[in-house]
Structures are given as structure tokens and as C-alpha cells.
Design goal:
- The protein is an all-alpha fold and 186 residues long.
- It has one domain.
- It contains eight helices and two strands.
- Strands 1-2 form a two-stranded antiparallel sheet.
- The relative contact order is 0.11.
Length: 186
């Protein structure tokens, strides 16, 4: 009987040790990594939108363009000076090598951040893990863009999908894909 009592004390002590020494620090680490990824995504989105805006712009416009529905409305509107062209068409027609390089640098940084996220925490949701791996693969495939071969069109479609929450399969989504399907479910 004393053996069972001692065994139960050891089990309880091991459980308390595990909880305080392993579980709490791992959970804290996971929370920090996820929160950092959320902030990094917002920072990346700001940098991508800034790269698309050619003229001087207000911080209010940048803040509003973070919202996918405002982004759609803004870039689907006719250009200020060239009425037969949308703002998005104008952006694509005026992509310079420097702007493309800025976008590609942001993609590379985001791919590295996804790699860090996947190495540091265990993503238990199969759908989220799969989406992160596919996103990482897409980002790596866009490492270089050659304007001579029209590759900026594929780049623009990808930008359109992540910033406008657009899907080539489901058309416009009524939610922010990155936040709803990936970040909030990690």
C-alpha cells in the first residue's frame, strides 16, 4: 500500500515538474513566435503595399489598404490621371526592376519567417501546415522575375491573391485569407 502511495506522489511530482519546467516555457515560446509572425505579416503587407504605391501617400492610406476590401476598392478604381486604366493596371504597367526587387526581397524574408515558424513550433493543424508549406513554396518560386519573359504577371497575380484576398478558384473571398486560414489557426 505504501508503494502505491509513493508511486502516486512521484506521478504528481512528475506532472507538476513537467507543467512548470516544460509545458509553460514551450507554450510561452509558441505564443511569442506566433505573435511575432502576426506582426511580421503586417509589416510585410505594409512594405508590399508601399512598393506598389508610386507617389507620396499618407499613412492613413497605407493603414486603410491593409484591409482587403479597401484594397480592392482602391486598386479597382480608375487611375487618377489615366481614366481608362485601373490603378492596379497602372501599377503593373509601371513596375520597375527596383520595385520588383523590393517585392521579391519581401517575399524572401516572408519565406524565411515561415521557415522559422515551422522550425520553432509544432503546427498541429494539418490544413494550416499544408497552407504554410505551399505558401513557402510559392514564395521560393518567385525568387526571380524576368520582365523579358512576362513573369511579372505571375508575380502580380500572387500579390493580388494575398493582398486582395482573391482566389483564382473561389474568386473574391469575404475574409482576409492570411489571417483567417493561417495566422488565427496556428
Amino acid at each position: 500500500m505504501e508503494f502505491l502511495y509513493d508511486l502516486s506522489i512521484w506521478v504528481i511530482a512528475a506532472g507538476v515538474f513537467y507543467y512548470f519546467q516544460l509545458y509553460i516555457p514551450e507554450q510561452r515560446k509558441k505564443d511569442i513566435v506566433i505573435e511575432n509572425f502576426k506582426k511580421y505579416w503586417e509589416h510585410t503587407k505594409d512594405n508590399l503595399i508601399s512598393a506598389l504605391l508610386y507617389t507620396s501617400y499618407s499613412q492613413d492610406l497605407l493603414f486603410n489598404l491593409r484591409d482587403y476590401s479597401f484594397f480592392r476598392e482602391y486598386f479597382n478604381a480608375p487611375h487618377d490621371t489615366i481614366k481608362w486604366q485601373t490603378r492596379w493596371d497602372w501599377v503593373l504597367n509601371n513596375l520597375t526592376e527596383r520595385k520588383i526587387q523590393t517585392i521579391l526581397t519581401e517575399f524572401e524574408s516572408l519565406a524565411k519567417e515561415i521557415d522559422f515558424l515551422l522550425r520553432e513550433i509544432q503546427v498541429d493543424n494539418d490544413e494550416v501546415f499544408s497552407l504554410l508549406k505551399r505558401l513557402q513554396g510559392i514564395l521560393h518560386r518567385h525568387k526571380t522575375v524576368d520582365q523579358n519573359f512576362g513573369e511579372e504577371k505571375a508575380l502580380s497575380l500572387f500579390l493580388w491573391e494575398i493582398l486582395w484576398s482573391w482566389s483564382t478558384v473561389k474568386w473574391p473571398r469575404d475574409y482576409d485569407f492570411m489571417k483567417e486560414k493561417i495566422i488565427n489557426k496556428i
